[in-house]
Amino acid sequence: METRSRVGAQASTVAGGRPAAGGRGIDGYLRAHFPWYGLDEAFTGPRWLMQVAASGDGAVEHGSLGHGDEPSVRYEAAEDKERFAVVVTVADQPVRDSADGTGLLDATTVSSAAWLAGMGLLSYTWPLQMDHNLRDNWLEQQTETAWVLADDLESPAWSTLQLPVDGEAVTFHYRESEFGWVLAGSSGHGVHIGAYGRGMSAYGLGFSAVEDIADYA
User: Per-residue confidence of the chain (217 residues) as pLDDT tens digits?
Assistant: First the structure.
């Protein structure tokens, strides 16, 4: 799993938050050296671009693709209405030098995908009866929890399920909360896959490499 400060800074880009080095739009996706993953052809609803995140030297490291309803931030306004699933693709990378040459970045793993997916779900979650000030404290606590959970995928908080990736069954780590679900696994093709959603069952999903990213534009 990458260093905490780095992954934390990138998590907002997974959810469609503040632009990072990768930015919005199709160009960032086209610069990636790895395949992007989304829901397979069984999903017939809307598809949309979110954001990619890049390292200091401009190399694309991960990004997200949305499916279904574009989610709002305020959970109470969206309760029982929104149906969406976001797929996070994370390049499988070994331990490597940081862009400024002053240190090392940890290897990316399934835990990296689980962390980014967990943070993505949090970014679209606003608990009922909570004002802005309280949400900052709540978000900090939930961020810490998401970190701990992602770092121990064998804990009882996670179950496993098998979902198709490019037509082959792959085991994913899966957990639910009152705000939605998160899952993470590896494609076997140089990337780790994370996903999060609400209103759409994770059990019926399948993933496949995106043949034409323009389908999401």
Answer: 443 333 433 333 333 333 344 455 899 999 999 999 999 999 999 999 999 999 877 889 999 999 999 987 654 544 557 899 999 999 998 666 555 556 556 778 999 999 999 999 988 887 766 776 787 787 888 889 899 999 999 999 999 999 999 999 999 999 998 889 999 999 878 899 999 999 999 999 999 999 999 999 8
Supply 202's token pair.
């994770």
Q: Which domain holds residue 78?
A: 4-216
Q: Tell me the whole-structure pTM to 2 decimals.
A: 0.84
Identity of the residue numbered 203: Y
- Total number of domains in the chain: 1
Sign of CA dihedral 36, 33, 49, 126: positive
Cα 174–Cα 179–Cα 185 angle in degrees, nearest 5: 20
